[in-house]
Design goal:
The complex is a heterodimer of chains A (about 190) and B (about 220). Helices cover about 30% and strands about 40% of the residues of chain A. Chain A is an alpha+beta fold and about 190 residues long. Chain A has one domain (about 25-190): Nuclear Transport Factor 2, Chain: A. A nine-stranded antiparallel beta sheet of chain A has the order 1-2-3-4-5-6-7-8-9. The relative contact order of chain A is 0.10. Chain B has one helix and twelve strands; from the N terminus they run αββββββββββββ. In chain B, strands 1-2-4-5-6-7-8-9-10-11-12 form an eleven-stranded mixed β-barrel. The chains are: A alpha+beta (about 190), B mainly beta (about 220).
């Protein structure tokens, strides 16, 4: 009888697993990365070492991500499945941004109740991969569009949660989404 | 990852070899929790402690023995995305006696780009027949590391390491217990995960040679 209960418990596990939406990121080998992604990265970042490659699937859309440290700064570079460059994200502290951007973002953050900054990533995008590459090589942001992906805790629409917001350089909130946190039962009990 | 486990087994093995008394056994647990109204969560855990053997100076003192079953229930409230508080109770059946423990806790969990850290401060009061109340103050630090990529996703393995210090006060006497545990976990999905590992406990070492206990853990978490 008790075996029937466990059998039911574990069968339900796999039924749930099959019904869940797949949203996953997995480490992959460099050999699995499209050659054009590797070439773009080598051309844009000189003497690059220790690049970690990931395959990401979000809402059934696949992409490839390279994560690395370059000149003591954390970079995350996203490519489409065919290897074309999509964007470059640079880990920043608020104090490292220009004074104007700092002021714009800080003013925007005031709209949120109980706001606490967790992480800022400067997002560089361009209409062409060449322009983005040139902007990185020459450290010239005038060629590209810069936005800020900000992770923060705040009360929005009555929910005190962890949020991810995309802001433009003027501090205008372009989009936001609630970050789904995994249950902490194995840390709490 | 396997190197962590080998290291843990070696460290525990060496420690136990050098000591006079060792208990080894099994500590399986099922934890079921349910979240409602965004901030509230209720949980129930069932844990069974079974001794496999007790050795002193490599001599077998005791063999298999069922020790006890604990049923714990906690009601937790999420103060913020990181901070939580909880109240609960434990019911224990041991040697025909009923033991009750009241529990209060504060938790702080934080995640970095790939790791999760958990801090838990807990106080509890144990009421058992023919004994004075036992008061404990506990602090546990936990670290969860994904083993397949930067973040933990469905169908991936992780490892969880915990260290806990416990101060115990009963009948005007103080004791101190230390716990270390390491598990290999499999995150099936947001509803289910399983963990397998070792839990090492050292107590009664302030005035005595110390009691060393190592438990094989098999934990199953179900979120409804």
């Amino acid at each position: 009888m008790k075996y029937t209960f466990f059998l039911f418990l574990f069968s339900s596990t796999f039924i749930f697993a099959q019904n869940d939406k797949i949203e996953a990121e997995q480490r992959i080998k460099k050999t699995e990365v499209p050659a054009n992604s590797i070439a773009w990265l080598s051309a844009s970042f000189s003497n690059l070492k220790k690049v970690k490659w990931y395959s990401e699937t979000t809402s059934q859309i696949k992409s490839i991500e390279a994560k690395f440290k370059w000149n003591q700064i954390n970079y995350s570079v996203e490519f489409s499945e065919d290897g074309s460059i999509e964007d470059v994200e640079i880990g920043r502290k608020l104090s490292e941004l220009t004074k104007t951007t700092q002021e714009s973002l800080t003013a925007s953050f005031r709209q949120f109740e109980k706001f606490k900054l967790s992480k800022i990533q400067e997002q560089w995008t361009s209409d062409t991969g060449d322009k983005l590459s040139q902007a990185l090589i020459n450290n010239d942001p005038s060629l590209i569009t810069i936005k800020y992906e900000v992770e923060f805790t705040a009360i929005i629409e009555g929910s005190y949660s962890l949020w991810e917001g995309l802001f433009d350089g003027n501090g205008i909130l372009l989009s936001k989404r609630k970050v789904k946190l995994r249950a902490t039962d194995n840390l709490d009990y | 990852m396997r190197y962590y486990f080998i290291l843990l087994i070696l460290v525990i093995g060496q420690t136990l070899k050098a000591q006079s008394e060792l208990t080894f056994g099994f500590l399986p647990e099922i934890a079921v929790s349910h979240r409602w109204a965004e901030k509230w969560r209720v949980s129930g855990q069932l844990e069974s402690m079974q001794q496999s053997f007790v050795n002193r100076n490599q001599e077998r003192l005791e063999g298999y023995k069922y020790i006890r079953t604990d049923a714990t229930s906690l009601l937790t409230y999420q103060l913020s995305p990181n901070w939580g508080i909880g109240l609960g109770g434990l019911a224990r059946f041991e040697n025909g006696d009923f033991v009750f423990r009241s529990i209060q806790q504060v938790t702080f969990n934080k995640r970095s780009s790939s790791l999760r850290f958990g801090h838990r401060l807990r106080t509890d009061q144990t009421f058992e027949p023919q004994s004075d109340i036992r008061l404990r103050l506990r602090y546990r630090f936990s670290l969860e590391i994904p083993l397949q990529g930067q973040t933990l996703n469905d169908g991936e393995f992780y490892t969880l390491w915990s260290a806990e210090q416990i101060g115990i006060y009963q009948t005007r006497e103080l004791d101190w217990e230390q716990r270390l545990s390491g598990v290999l976990g499999y995150y099936i999905n947001s509803n289910h995960k399983v963990e397998f590992g070792l839990d090492y406990r050292l107590d009664k070492f302030l005035d005595n040679p110390g009691r060393h206990r190592a438990w094989t853990m098999l934990n199953y978490y179900l979120n409804l």
